[in-house]
C-alpha cells in the first residue's frame, strides 16, 4: 500500500533518517494524494539538505576565520615579543628557540599534537612579561642580578600571564607562561609551586628556557657548549628541573646531533653536477639586484647568487634550519662575501625583510621538501609579499641522487606541476629552462 509506505518513510524522515525511498512514490503510477505528498516531502528534503550543506560550508569558513584571527593575534603578540628582544641583543631569538626546544621535548614525551602546539605557544610568549622591564635590565651589567632589579625580574611571569589572560585560545599555555620559572623543589618563582602543581608544559619550558640561557652568551657569562649545558641540567634534575623533562630533552639533543650534519632535503643532487653560476646565468640577474634565497639549506646557491649580483646587490639567505644558517655564515666569511645577510626565519610565515623589496625570490626544490604540507602555500604567499611589483620568482627543481637518510621526502615535480602550483598564488609563468627532465628552472612574475 503506497499510503502505508509513505507513512513509514515520513516517520523515518521525522526520526532523522533521510532516504531516497520517497522518490519512488513520486512516479506516474502512484495514486493521488500520495504522489503530491511524496513530491512535497522530496522537495523539503532537498531544501533541508541544501541548508545543511550551506551550514557545513559556513562552519568551515568560521573555522578558517577563527584560525586566521588566532594566527594574527599570535603574530601581533610575537611582534611585541620581538620588539622586546630588540631591546636585548643577548636574547635575540630566545623565545623562538625555547618554543622550538619545548615543542620537541613535548613530542618526545608523547604529548598529542594539540598539547605540543600549546607548549610551543607558551614558549613563544613565556617572557612577554619582560616588556615592562626598565632599560637598565637590558644593558650589560657585571653581576648576574643587581638586588634592586630582582623584584622586577621575578614579577615577569605574573606580568606576562596578566597581559595575555584575555586571549582565550592560549588555553593551558597561559599557565605555562605563569609557571615557567617554578621549580620541582618549590624554590622557583613567583608562587613557589612544587612539582605536582606545576603543569607539565611549564616544566618542559623551564628546561628549554634554561638550556637556551646556558648555551647563549649573556652579559654575565659566556655561552656554554651543548654537552656542558646538558650536564648542568642533569645535575639539577629533580630539584631545579623536572627529571623526565631533562631526560626527554637529552633525547631531543641526541637526535638533533645526528641530524645536524645535513640539512633537511640535502644530499647530492643533479644540481651539484653542473656549475651553479652557469645555471643561474639563466636568471639574467642584474648587478645590484636584491635576491632572497628561500629555504637556502646549506647555502651553496646563496653563495653563487652573491657572486652574481656583485657588490652593489644584496642577497638574503633564509632558512629555518639553524645549523644551515651557521654553515652559510661560515661560507660567507671564508669567501669574504660582503653582500649577504642570513636570516633564520620560518619561511612560511614571516620573512623579516622589511626595509628592502626583493627583485628575485629563489626557491630550490622547496615546493615539495617542506613540511608541513601547507608550508609551500605559505612560502609562495611570502614570496608574493616580499617581491617588488615586477619581481620574479625562480623555482629550481633538481633530482636527488644521494638523498639524506630517513624516509624520502622529495617527490619530483614536473615543470607543469610546478607551474600549476605557483600560478595559483598570483604569479604568471614566463619560461622554463629545461636541462634534464628534473633539472630545470622556471621563472614567474608577479601578476597584477
Ligand atoms: Fe622567563
Ligand atoms: Fe626565558
Question: How does this structure look, described?
Answer:
This protein has 448 residues and is of the alpha/beta class. 49% of the residues lie in helices and 13% in strands. Helix 8 packs across helix 9 and helix 9 crosses helix 10. The structure holds fe (ii) ion (2 copies). One fe (ii) ion (FE2) binds next to loops.
Detail the topology: elements first, then pairings.
Elements: H1 2-14, H2 21-24, H3 34-87, H4 94-108, H5 113-125, H6 147-154, H7 156-164, H8 173-179, H9 200-215, H10 226-236, H11 243-259, E1 268-269, H12 276-280, E2 290-294, H13 300-309, E3 314-319, H14 322-335, E4 340-344, E5 358-364, H15 366-369, H16 375-386, E6 387-397, E7 400-402, H17 415-423, E8 427-436, E9 439-446
Parallel strand pairs: 2-3, 2-5, 3-4, 5-6
Antiparallel strand pairs: 1-7, 6-9, 8-9
Helix pairs in contact: 1-3, 4-5, 4-9, 4-11, 5-8, 5-9, 7-8, 8-9, 9-10, 10-11
The structure holds fe (ii) ion (FE2) (2 copies).
